[in-house]
Write the C-alpha cells for this entry.
Amino acid sequence: MSSPSIVWFRDDLRLADHPALRAALDRGEPVIGLYVLDEQSPGVRPLGGAARWWLHHSLASLSERLRERGGVLILRRGPAAEVVRDVVTDAGAGAVFWNRRYGGPERDIDARLKESLRADGVEVASFAGSLLFEPWTVTTGAGTHFSVYSPFWRACLSLPAPRAPLPEPREVPASGRAPASESLDDWGLLPHDPDWAGGLRETWEPGEPAARRRLREFLAEDVGAYDRARDRPSAGATSLLSPRLRWGELSPHTVWHAAIEAHDTSRFLSELGWREFAWHTLYHFPELATKNLRREFDAFPWPRLKPTALRAWQRGETGYAIVDAGMKELWHTGYMHNRARMVTASFLIKNLLIDWRHGEEWFWDTLVDADGANNPFNWQWVAGSGADAAPYFRVFNPELQAQKFDPDGHYIAQWAPEHRGEEGLAPAPIVDLKATRQRALAAYEQVKQAARSGN
Ligand code: FAD
C-alpha cells in the first residue's frame, strides 16, 4: 500500500522551483496537491476582492498543469490545520510538505500542525521557497533585525547567494484514490452582480505560464529602460511581476537568477530587496497592518473620518489629476504604478488627514498584488510610521509630481482624461494643497512631542 505525500500549496502557485513539491517527488510515493481556502483561522486576513479574482484563475491554471502531468489538486475550505489533518487521514498520507509562510498567525498554524502531525507519525518538512533570505538569517552585528534598508540589503548580499531555481517536474504521479475535492466555482471567488472584473480580465492572465512569459519579455525588452524610466507611470518600464511574486507563480529565486543571467545591473534586483525587507519586517512585527511600527505615531491626532473625502479618493474624484488617474488605474486594472501609489497614499494621509490604515484596507481590497507585507509596509513607509520611512514632513505635491513624472500627460490622459479636457469637466479640488499641508505638519508636531517625551 502506498502512503501518498501531500504538497500543501499556499502562496506558491507554481510547479517550477517549488522545493516542497520537489521533496514530495523525491520521496517516491504518489503526490496529492492541496490548496486550503482558510477564511476561519483566527488572525488570518481574509483576501480582498481583486485578490480572490486572481486566486481563482491561478488555481485553475495550477490544477490544469498538475493534471497534464498526471497529478491532482484537491481544493478544500475551512480552518487550515483541521482541513490538512482531515486530508491526511482521508488519503492515508505518510508525509506533508510545504514552503514556509512568514506572517504571525500563519506561522503559528504551521508550527502547531507540524507538531501534531509528527506526533501522529506523519513526516512533515517545510522549505524556503518564497523569500531569497530567511528572516532569521539576516541580523545586525548586535543580533537584532534591521530598521534601515541599505545596511539590511548589504547584509543580505554578504550572505551566500540565493540558490539556483529547481527545474519544473515533467510528471507528478498522483494516487489512484485521491480524497474528494470541492469545486473551484463553488467557492465564489469571482465577482458577480455586479461583475466588476472586466478590466482585470483585459489586463491580466494569471497563472505560471503567463508569469514566465512576462519575466522573459521584461528581461529581453524592458529592463534596459528600468533605471531611467521606472518612476514614470506611463513608460511601461517596470516588470509588472508583483502579482506573480505575490501569488508565487514565480519564485524570487527564479526572478533573481534570470535577471543576473540577463546581465541586469539596474535597480531592479534591489527592488526585490525591498520585498525581502518588507517581509522580514512583518516577520519581526506581525501587527504591521494594524499598528504603527514607530509607536510615537500612536500620538498622531487623526481627526474624525470624513467618509465623503475617503470616497472621493477611492473613486478618483479628488480634483487632482495624478491622484485621480492612479485611483482609476487601480479600480480598472487591480494595479497601480509605484509612483502613483506613493502620491495617492501621501494625498490620503497628509492632505486628507485620513489614517493610513483606511488606505491600506482599500488597496488590500482592490490590488491584484495585495500583499500581506508589502502593502502595510509601504503604507507605513509613506505615513512616516514605518521602517526606514519617508519623513512625515515630506508631503508630495500632486501637481509637481505630475509635472515631474508625467511631463507629457500620457498617464493622466489614459486614466483621468477628464482632467485633460475642457474646463469644467474635471472635479473641483476637494482640498487646498497649501492649507492641508500646514494642517498635516501641525498635527505631526504632536508625534514629535511624543517622541521627545519617550512615548
Ligand atoms: P518593479 O519595479 O518591476 O519591481 C520588481 C518587484 O520588486 C515587484 O514586483 C515587487 O515584488 C518588488 N517591489 C518593488 N517595489 C517594492 C516596494 N516598494 N516594496 C516592496 N516590494 C517592492 N507591492 C506589492 O507587491 N503589493 C502591495 O500590496 C503593494 N502595496 C503598496 C502600497 C503603497 C502605498 C506603495 C507606495 C507601494 C506598494 N507596493 C506593493 C510596492 C510597489 O508599488 C509594487 O511592488 C510595484 O509597483 C509593482 O510593480 P512592478 O512589479 O512592475 O515593480
